[in-house]
Specification:
419 residues; 3 domains; Tyrosyl-Transfer RNA Synthetase; elongated; Rossmann fold; single chain; 20 helices; Structural Genomics Hypothetical 15.5 Kd Protein In mrcA-pckA Intergenic Region, Chain A; alpha/beta
Amino acid sequence: MSGNVYDELKERGFVAQVSDEAAVRRTLGGKPVTFYIGFDSTAASLHAGSLVPIMAMVHLRRAGHRAIAVVGGGTTMVGDPSGKSEMRRMLDEATIRSYGASIHAQLDRYLHFDGSGAVAVNNADWLLPLNYVGFLRDIGRHFSVNRMLAAESYKLRLEKGLSFIEFNYQLLQAYDYLTLFRKYGCTLQMGGDDQWGNILAGVDLIRRVDGGAAEALTFPLLTMASGAKMGKTAQGAVWLDAALFSPYDFYQYWVNVDDRDVGRLLRLFTLLPLDEIRKLEALKDGGTNEAKRVLAYEATKITHGDKAAEEARAASSAAFGKPGGGTDAASGGNVQLLPTTTIARTRLEAGISPAELFTEVGLTPSRKEAKRLIEQGGLTVNDERIVGPERLLTVKDLGPNGGMLLKVGKKKMLRVVAG
């Protein structure tokens, strides 16, 4: 990568706040620096919103800097109040360990932990053995309660109630930074913009305790042009785990983003050169759809690999790229790569109401909603609109290879096969 990676991050839209821009730019433009980002173990998988910090780490790693991914086995036991209106659900230690192992494996796909260019650590290793009184004496005395209460992450929670255990979170995150500074020479912490106060607390702690110099950089908290939170759909989170959110659905998430978001998302979530992204941004009308397909393919390739991205693109092309050709494709060909659900053949032989089937497979939230969509002409089987509530789906709707393509509108679909 030519030039300074800090300039690359800034042009791609990764930079919200930085402690000392000149110092960070100078540092990232020189010899390799060690940096870190923390990921708390609050779920079995990270989601698409986590790709902002992950992609920033990828850029710095490609530029020759050393990445430390901190899996927050210790901090998860406390719970980060940042950006939360309520206290997080408390997880037991075994669950946190299990989640942490899954997150470690996911991060390895992007960062390739080799012990030198990229390292994974778990802050449970140094936080759980702490002597509480000694920690308060040695670390807690450097924190001003007044300054902590002024932090945005705490102010948002004071009215609804901030637990004492959450109040300790900033101390623990700052101690993480100090520990990594001492053990690995880590001098840059990055994170979401809601982490700004916590990261600065670590910068200040390193200065006070060790007289060291460290820096902070935060990423913008993304919302889509529609106002929706990045990485969320009406059905829930866009998980990075293929078992929770299929590569095909992942591809569809990106290919269906708002036209206004395409350029920004290409910068953040692909490794395409900026010159190529500018050309894609300049496309108009139908060309915007081509830019979305490039975004979807590149983002899926980074998360799920080349083969899964190719299959998702082929399935999407088969499903949407042949006007009026959905019936044949539904029963075979590339559409076999679509998310698929199996139902008992005997049920189809008896006949199933569309409202029942669409709701059972998760395409509609309720039978009532399915019936409403039928009245509006919004449900199709093998690209044929369902007309009337008396229509039943039977084995006659299965194609030659045993498949039936269910669609809600133009973009939400699933393949059903008989078993």
